[in-house]
Amino acid sequence: MPKLSTFDTADFLDNEELISEYLSVALEDPDPDMFLMAVRNVARARGMSQLAKDSGLGRESLYKALAPGAKPRYETVLKLVAALGVKLHAVPAH
User: Which residue in 1, 21, 65, 84 is a FRET match for 57, CA 20 to 30 A apart?
Assistant: First the structure.
């Protein structure tokens, strides 16, 4: 029986358009943990150390903020999103 490798989303988040689309889709999910999981995957794709540096957060704080079930402050989420190089914006619901 062939051995399957583990799928890791972070391995495929290799360009800005894909990252922004991935985060946008995650924002549409009613479960806020989906967005944090997406941010965590993008952070891993970019490098957690680099994201910690770019966001001004310590690595331990970054891991805590992105842990499953975490409830990071709005200010922390904004720092992370800015450090990832993306912008969040509102559009009218249809």
Answer: 21
